[in-house]
Amino acid sequence: MPKQNIKTIITETKSIMKNDESCCTIACESPLDQNYWDAQYKSKTTGWDLGQIAPPIQNFIDSIENKNCRILIPGCGNTYEAEYLLEKGFSNITVIDIAPTLVSLLQQKFANKSNIKIVLEDFFEHKGEYDIIIEQTFFCALPPFMRQKYVWKMHQLLAKNGKLAGLLFNRDFEVSPPFGGSQKEYELLFKIAFNFKILEVAQNSAAPRKGSELFFEFQKNSAVQVNLYGFEGISCSGCMETVSAKFATLNFVLNVSMNTNYSEVLLVSQSEIPQEQLQEIVSYDEKNKIQKINP
Predict the structure, then answer these.
(1) Helix axis angle, 100-109 relative to 34-42, nearest 10°?
(2) Cα dihedral 199/193/154/90 (nearest 10)
(3) The whole model's pTM is what?
(4) How many Cα atoms occupy the beta-carbon half-sphere of 62 within 13 Å?
């Protein structure tokens, strides 16, 4: 599970019972950081855990022909997906999680398996190149303001024509994490950076999630540049819309997406836009500052 810098209030047990996917089951207020996720595994408070591989992901794995392809599972949890991959003879699997307690358990569990690499790390600091990245309850563990960063990092880690595939919630939650979303939102977020092969309501979800999740298979669009920029100065949605509209008019810009707390903007373009040009555009207000985030 990922490292974050926000605070989420988890309400009393009575409210949480409405949310079968919740993490905490007692009242608490915690930053969603390494300590938070590690505490969930120490207390075995893992409401998101299905106890088995999700059927749509199992079907996807069954469709992969190259058993030597490089596969990454971020925010891997108990990683039933990796177990299944090993059973099917896949030889190059990497799983990442930020919770030390969990990673220690996984290292013991897979101690005699040479085809899997278990990494204790913040996903957004990970380096590597992969043919396939499997998404399973990692995206939904990120607060919405990190979604642009997720798109940027996935595009960065995938090899040419690599695939990002898995499940996304198609619903909202009263208590978070998990954080929900909708098909329309995902289409706007991932467009142009990825080519959509499949994005549809999953037909064979596990019973607790039936009708509430989307199966997707996106292929990296290697013909475009995907860059993330830190932004300072914006404090309202109106200013965000103004800046986004200005960026969208630039030659070669194909998609603009600013995060929900106005601190980062994702630009998808045919070629990289000089930072000086971007700064000039936003300098109508002296508070506005933009800075490229390097991988």
Answers:
(1) 50
(2) 60
(3) 0.90
(4) 7
> Which of 204, 260, 253 is closest to 225 using CA atoms?
253
Domains of the chain with CATH codes: 7-42 (no CATH), 55-220 (3.40.50.150), 225-292 (3.30.70.100)
Torsion region of 60: left, alpha or beta (phi above 0 gives left; psi -120 to 50 gives alpha): alpha
Is residue 29 within 8 Å of residue 10, measured between CB atoms? yes
In the chain, which ranges are E strands? 7-10, 28-31, 71-73, 93-97, 116-120, 130-135, 158-169, 194-201, 213-220, 225-232, 253-258, 264-269, 289-292
* C-beta atoms surrounding 68 within 10 Å: 11
Beta carbons of 193 and 164 less than 8 angstroms apart: no
Q: Is the pLDDT of residue 1 over 50?
A: no
* Pair type for strands 7-10 and 28-31: antiparallel
Query: Residues 280-289: what's their mean pLDDT?
Result: 96
56 token code pair: 């749509």
For the stretch 105-140, pLDDT in tens is 999 999 999 999 999 999 999 999 999 999 999 999
> Starting from the edge strand earliest in sequence, which strands make up the sheet with 71-73, in order?
116-120, 93-97, 71-73, 130-135, 158-169, 213-220, 194-201
CA 70, 66, 137, 36 dihedral sign is negative
157 or 23, which is more confident: 157
Residue 21 has pLDDT above 60, yes or no: no
| pLDDT, position 49 | 87
Give the whole-angstrom CA distance, residue 139 versus residue 146.
9
